Amino acid sequence: MIRSRRALGCALLLALAACRSTPSAVEAPGEGFLGALVLPSVGPVPYRPRSLSGKVVLVSFFATWCFPCVAEVPTLQALQREHGPEGFQVVAVGMDLEGARVLAPYADHAALNYPMLLADEYLRSGRTAFGHIGALPMTVILDREGRAVAAWQGMSGRGDLEKTLKKALAR
Fold first, then answer.
1. In this structure, are residues 121 and 99 in contact, taking their beta carbons and an 8 Å threshold?
2. Residue ranges of domains in the chain, CATH in brackets
3. 7-46 per-residue burial string, b: 16 or more CB within 10 A, e: under 16
4. pLDDT, tens digit, for every residue of 109-157?
5. How many CB atoms sit inside 10 A of residue 52's CB?
6. What predicted TM-score, i.e. pTM, was given to this entire model?
7. Residue 42: helix, strand or coil by DSSP?
8. How far apart (Å, rounded) are the C-alpha atoms in residues 171 and 166?
9. Contact indicator for 58, 90 with CB cutoff of 8 Å
């Protein structure tokens, strides 16, 4: 009985550790998370990778075929509108294999107020600081130094995003 409780306790701890909202990717030496965002962009918002320096950045790995990704867009637009003046930037990374052919029309139609980047083969294969993206949407929050401070796989709740964002902006 005691052994089975210990085994259950260990299994529960491992499961909880796997569900934490912390980054699962390890920074690649010399590249870093911001370096992995030097990608081409599409859509109505111009993108300059250097403009991310010193900002809190929310990176949303996104696909047009992913319903939770599309459902999260209004929340991301509201966060950008509300917190942009505080030094915050949302950046979407489109994972669609068709690239600009589907992402550019989507970004224009949705009137995104943040940049939409095109994932390259390195990112899709997990050979960047973000590692393998196992589920969409995936959200990573980077602090002002470009370090990952939180990450979610699956749809993020506005409350969780707001709480983590406010903490990162306050630093």
1. no
2. 21-170 (3.40.30.10)
3. eeeeeeeeeeeeeeeebbbebeeeebbbebbebebbbebe
4. 999 999 999 999 989 998 889 988 989 999 999 999 999 999 999 988 8
5. 21
6. 0.81
7. strand
8. 9
9. yes
